[in-house]
Every structure is written in C-alpha cells, then in structure tokens.
Amino acid sequence: MKYLIIGLGNPGKEYSDTRHNIGFKVLEAYAQAFDTFFLHERYADIAKIKYKGRILVLAKPMTYMNLSGKAVNYLLTKEKIPIENMLVIVDDLALPFGTIRIKQSGGAGGHNGLSDIISNLNSDIFNRLRFGIGDKFKGGGQTDYVLGNWSDEENKLLPERIDKMIGAIKNFSSIGIERTMNFFNLKYNFEEELKKLISKDNSENNE
C-alpha cells in the first residue's frame, strides 16, 4: 500500500529555516533517519521509504507554496495513490508554537498552500498534519513572520516536535487517520515550555 506525504514549503536556501517551511523540515528529518535522499522529479523533490510493509512517498513541492496544488494533483495521479492515503504537513498561525493537530478536512484558513491544493483537487477533504507556529506579529506583519526564521528558543524545541510529527506520519500509514488523530491531537501546547526555556536561559546568563 502506498501513501503520499506532502511537506509544504518554498524551495531555496533562503527559505530553509523559515516557519513556512516546517513541512520540508519534517520530511528531510524523516528521510535522513532512513538514510534516504531526495531526488528531483517533475514538480517536486521525492524520497521513498518503506515502513511496516507500506511505501511512503515523501514529497516536497518545488512549485513554491502558492502553487502547491499543481504538484499534489500530479503526484496523486502519477503514483496512483487515493486521496485518503495523503497527508499534508503545514504550518498554522492559529495554533500556539509547537502544537500539533491532525484533521481530515477543512478550509484553507488563509493558508495559500492549502488554498491552492483545495482548488486543484476541487475538494477540501484530505488529511492535514498542522504544526502551530503562533501569531506573535503585529498587524500587517504576517508575511514577514511566516517567512522569518525560527527564534533561538523555538529552535531548541523543534527537534523534539519534529520527532513527534514523524511519529504521527508513521502512525498515519500504519494504524490509520482516526486512531492517529486520537493519539496526537493533544489538548496542551508548548508555550509554557518556551517560557520555562527562556527563564532558564536568562537565569544561566545572570549567574
């Protein structure tokens, strides 16, 4: 059985450490854990891994975020993967930093990548793995925020969160979306951890 795991982001080194590229970052970490490399194909960089008898097609669209739907539509057809076996990894301003949510459907919520996927598939019924990046920006600063780099404090917490998201991908392909949702849709967020980390750093710097 095959699964398509789409990580949304923008190609290019200038975007690699931005909040908008969490999808790329997660897939790169997953592929690295399997000593697998991405190869450039039409519309996307692709890596394929096997997990518990399943084939996972990891895809980073190279069409830029706002045209992600073109790559997604092409890959679903090329790989002959049903839409219910697709999972899209996306950043989410509406969730506090580090919060993980999994949904089976829904609107774009102002996210241009999701909006283009919905438009190209003519459907909003597909699985999403949403990663909270918070909304700590002033009015009119949304674009600079999502295209900005992670803070030092966020970078310290990212590896653990990425591991959690890789776990969600594994569960999605092995036990299904509903059981994965029940397990990973946590009721808490990581703002408190971030505050504790900042407080600890300040304390150490003052010693």
What secondary-structure arrangement, pairings included, does this model have?
Blueprint: E1 2-7, H1 22-33, E2 39-41, E3 44-51, E4 54-61, H2 68-78, E5 86-92, E6 100-103, H3 112-121, E7 127-132, H4 142-146, H5 152-175, H6 177-184, H7 191-206
Parallel strand pairs: 1-4, 1-5, 5-7
Antiparallel strand pairs: 2-3, 3-4, 6-7
Mind explaining what this structure looks like?
With 207 residues, the chain is an alpha/beta fold. It has a single domain (2-206), classed as Rossmann fold (3-Layer(aba) Sandwich). The protein has seven helices and seven strands, in the order βαβββαββαβαααα. The longest helix has 24 residues, at 152-175. The protein is globular. 36% of the residues are buried. The mean pLDDT is 93.
Key phrases:
207 residues, alpha/beta, 20% strand, Rossmann fold, seven-stranded mixed β-sheet, 7 strands
CATH superfamily caption: Peptidyl-tRNA hydrolase
- Domain tally: 1
Give the ordered list of helices and strands. Answer: EHEEEHEEHEHHHH
> CATH topology, which one?
Rossmann fold
Broad structural category:
alpha/beta
Share in β-strands: 15-25%
Quickly describe the structure.
The protein has 207 residues and is an alpha/beta fold. It has helices at residues 22-33, 68-78, 112-121, 142-146, 152-175, 177-184, 191-206; strands at 2-7, 39-41, 44-51, 54-61, 86-92, 100-103, 127-132. A hairpin with a 2-residue loop joins strand 3 and strand 4 (54-61).
